Amino acid sequence: MISKEELERREELERREELGRRQEMQRRKEKERRKKLEESIDLAKRQEEERRQEEERRTQSSRRTKKRQAEENMLISEIESLKQNFEDTTKKLIKDILRQDKIMLRSDQRQRKDYDELQLKLEEIKLLSKEIEDTQKEVIFTMGAIGESRSKETGNHVKRVAEYSKLLAIHYGLSLKEAEMLKQASPMHDIGKVAIPDIVLNKPGRFNEEERLIMDTHAQIGYEMLKHSDRILLKTASTVAYEHHEKYNGKGYPQGLKGEDIHIFGRITALADVFDALGSDRVYKKAWSDEKIFKLFREERGEHFDPNLIDIFFNHLDDFLKIRSTFKDVLD
Ligand SMILES: [Fe+2]
Ligand SMILES: [Fe+2]
Q1: Which one, 69, 129, 170, 241, has the greatest CB density within 10 A?
Q2: What's the domain count of the chain?
Q3: CATH number of the structural domain spanning residue 142
Q4: Which residues are tagged catalytic?
């Protein structure tokens, strides 16, 4: 039989065991709860961390977006500003071009006007210059004709001499300008005759020695009359007057020049003058026949006349004869 004390002790023991078990269970539970709590805390921390990261990502993204937006805005504004600038510049350019156009138009009109005025003045000067030139030519021709008319020549004599001279000059190889100059000047070859007394100049018969000497001074006199001029035409005329009685062989007058020492203008006028004088009727003599003239010219080739000019004369004989018939004398 179990004593009461024993029973009580056993009961006490069981109670203690029971308590111990309960405490153990409670500790375990507490441990589990703690563990769960820790896990919960961990989870919460992780979630918090994730949320924070997410937040940060969002913030960054938003920042980036904002930055991009700002950049875009800046770009747009820059483009706008550029566009505005471009438009302004274009407008300004167009305005400038239009203004420039206007200025140029005005300048063109002004220049055109100036040019037209200048042309008109030039035209006037040309006319005036031609007038002076024509007058000069006419005066020279008239002076030549006066010289001739005081002797027994006709007006057409100087015209023919002028034409023959030009023809010879061209074929000799002188420039057209020189040939034209000679044509203008050659009518003056006998201008010195204005100073020869009528009694000698118009003597019907042959000259005696003294009269011949007086007559021959017309070359020197003509030269003296014209030599002081600076005009090229008058200078040419003075050469022609001075040297038209020189002979290629040196036996002419007044200087007795020889060959090509005689100016080509003098050599040419000599041939033209003699050809015309011999071939024309005069009140005191009949014209020589062509055969007689040609015979003389062949004989005088290199004597009285420049051989080259004689060759030119025969090579272009038809042209010389044509001039003679075009300007033939009308004798009353
Ligand atoms: Fe003469
Ligand atoms: Fe003459």
Answers
A1: 241
A2: 1
A3: 1.10.3210.10
A4: 193
- Residue 146 inside a domain? The answer is yes
Ligand that lies nearest to the alpha carbon of residue 156, given by its number in the listed order:
2
Express each pLDDT in 84-122 by its tens digit: 998 999 899 889 889 988 888 888 888 889 999 999 999
* 243 C-alpha to ligand 2 centroid (Å): 12
Q: Round to the nearest angstrom and report the end-to-end CA distance of the chain.
A: 216
How far is the C-alpha of 328 from the C-alpha of 332, rounded, in Å?
A: 13
Range of the domain at 259: 123-326
Computed over its alpha carbons, how large is the radius of gyration of the chain? 66
- Spatial distance between the Cα atoms of 186 and 238, rounded to a whole number of angstroms: 9
Q: Which ligand is nearest to the CA of 162?
A: 2
Confirm whether 49 is domain-assigned.
Answer: no
Task: Quote the ligand 2 centre to 152 CA distance (angstroms).
Answer: 10
40: amino acid identity, one letter: S
In a domain, 143, yes or no: yes
Structure confidence by residue, pLDDT tens digits, 222-263: 999 989 988 899 999 999 999 999 999 999 999 999 999 999
218 Cα–ligand 1 center, Å: 7
CA of 319 to the centre of ligand 1 (A): 24
